[in-house]
């Protein structure tokens, strides 16, 4: 796929290699390109996640007061069987940063990557 076919999100990370390992091992991303330790480009479907270490241009362009901590923004990954995914990731030793929450739109739980960036795992509610 051409990079114009992706929705791209940049996450500033403390360790590019650890981020690549986390996303590829646990969440089904594949490496599109790596220039570790500065930067890597991982993809899942049409999502292109740019993980940028402190030496990357993306990190250097971010004011220090904004780069100091992750925000509440997150990527949203839709799943067919959230409970099975929670069990699989728990067995892999990952810790969730929220409880499972359900509402009229579906169910979700939050996971953090090694740098504290949030990932929302979501299963839509069944529709009649």
TrEMBL record:
Protein name from the UniProt record: VOC family protein
Family matches, as PROSITE patterns: VOC (PS51819)
PANTHER family from the UniProt entry: METHYLMALONYL-COA EPIMERASE (PTHR43048), METHYLMALONYL-COA EPIMERASE, MITOCHONDRIAL (PTHR43048:SF3)
Pfam families found in the cross-reference section: Glyoxalase
Alphabetic keyword roster: Metal-binding
InterPro entries according to UniProt: Glyas_Bleomycin-R_OHBP_Dase, Glyas_Fos-R_dOase_dom, MMCE/EMCE_epimerase, VOC_core
The organism's place on the tree of life at top rank: Bacteria
Domain VOC as annotated: residue spans: 5-124
């Amino acid at each position: 796929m051409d990079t114009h076919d992706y929705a791209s999100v940049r996450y500033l990370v403390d360790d590019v290699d650890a981020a690549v390992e986390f996303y590829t091992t646990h969440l089904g991303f594949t490496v599109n390109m790596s220039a570790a330790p500065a930067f890597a480009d991982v993809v899942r479907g049409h999502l292109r996640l740019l993980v940028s270490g402190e030496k990357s241009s993306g990190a250097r362009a971010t004011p220090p007061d904004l780069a100091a901590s992750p925000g509440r923004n997150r990527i949203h990954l839709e799943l067919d069987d959230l409970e099975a995914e929670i069990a699989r990731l728990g067995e892999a030793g990952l810790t969730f940063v929220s409880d499972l929450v359900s509402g009229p739109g579906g169910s979700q739980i939050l996971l953090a990557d090694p740098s504290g960036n949030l990932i929302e795992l979501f299963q839509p509610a069944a529709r009649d």
